[in-house]
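so my prof wants the structure for this chain in the tokens format not the other one, which i didnt know existed until like an hour ago. anyway here's the sequence
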Amino acid sequence: MNTIDIVIGIILIIAFFVRFSKGLLRSLASLIGIVVGVYCAMFFSGYVGEYLIRWFDWSTDTNTIMAFVITFLLIMILFSILGRLLTKVADFAMLGIFNKLFGGVFNVLKFAFLISVVFMFVNASENYKILTEEQRDSSILYGPVASIAPTVLPTIMKEVDNLNIDGTEITPEGSPAETEPPTE
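here's what i got, hopefully its the right format
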């Protein structure tokens, strides 16, 4: 066990106990809230922006940003309330300890994924080496944690492509991906 294992271990232990108190249902509601919040903010912030134009004398850029933020925060608040309600139902049904235990495990997996993404970026840089080959090889946790993102991300991207079965663009109108010319 080396320094990498100690740092990863401490992060994962803290991650477990932070979400152990919240439970799985609140953790899932939070994660789903982030995803749905970003999606809704991308597609529906224009409606909020129309109201903001009437009420505030902001520049177009400020109005767009504030509409995105407000839409995102409203969705996050909605999912936070939903998570709290579901947690109360689980506590009432005497599933509280399982909810808390799985909440901790879920958060450990989430943080392991985030650490794996960091390792992916660090390893992609030729000039910026934080970890030596010896440190990586002698670590017990590095290999399993570092392999999570490269395994999960292609699967997620494949599933997103499968969702687009009719071949239409999923890119939101006006996004950088839509406005940039195609590269050859």
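also thought this was worth mentioning. DSSP finds eight helices and no strands in the chain.
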